[in-house]
Design brief:
Blueprint lengths: L8 H23 L9 E5 L5 H14 L4 E5 L8 H6 L6 E5 L5 H4 L2 H19 L6 E5 L1 H6 L5 H9 L6 E5 L5 H6 L2 E4 L20
Parallel strand pairs: 1-5, 1-6, 2-3, 2-4, 4-5
């Protein structure tokens, strides 16, 4: 058998085409077994940047499919962000509730943070119980769960018992084990390198 470095470009192309044909056939067999549709519980967690960014990507995809989206922001309510400015152009299909008071180190008031978390969760429950929504984003819910501002068992029970076709996305670091256990998809963002550590501040169009 010829080694790869001894083959002509034509032979390499033919070999590649055969390999890709086999891969496509295998993938088609695999896809043919995936027949169910259901509402997904999606969790974006980890120390790396991009958890909310990825979630807003799903939101944009849903809007492109004329789906109705609800967003509850548990922490970042005071931030003026580029994504919010864009989403305001889709008011017929999206509801954004900015319920946060800022990060806990900003408020320095635990009871105020707890009250804000409870208000945000009440708004989230209203959306979950509204059968007109297709996707709900609970942005930074993991943060308030991390500090035990809301009981994890109550949150998990509500999310688990949502209607069968409702998609819910939860973002934030340090997702708790009970939430991970009931989720359909969990992605952990891993930080390899971050410009913040070399003295670069948060910038418009990148962080907000």
């Amino acid at each position: 058998m010829k080694q790869k470095h001894d083959m002509s470009e034509l032979e390499l192309d033919e070999r590649h085409a055969i390999r890709m044909e086999k891969r496509k056939a295998a993938r088609n067999r695999m896809l043919s077994t995936k027949t169910r549709e259901k509402g997904l519980l999606i969790v974006h967690t980890g120390k790396g940047k991009g958890k909310s960014t990825a979630a807003f990507g799903i939101v944009m995809r849903a809007l492109g499919n004329n789906m109705k989206v609800g967003i509850i922001q548990f922490v970042k309510g005071k931030w003026e962000t580029g994504e919010r400015s864009v989403l305001e152009n889709f008011q017929e299909n999206i509801t954004i509730r900015t319920m946060g008071e800022g990060f806990t180190w900003d408020t320095q008031d635990r009871q105020r943070d707890i009250a804000a978390a409870r208000s945000a969760w009440a708004a989230a429950q209203d959306m979950i119980n509204d059968d007109t929504y297709d996707i709900i984003l609970l942005d930074e819910l993991n943060i308030v769960l991390r500090y035990d501002y809301l009981p994890i068992d109550m949150i998990v029970k509500t999310l688990k018992n949502r209607r069968h076709d409702l998609h819910i996305i939860v973002t934030g670091r340090n997702a708790k084990a009970p939430l991970i256990e009931v989720a359909d998809m969990v992605t952990e963002m891993t930080e390899i390198k971050h410009h913040f550590r070399s003295g670069v501040k948060a910038q418009r169009g990148i962080e907000f």
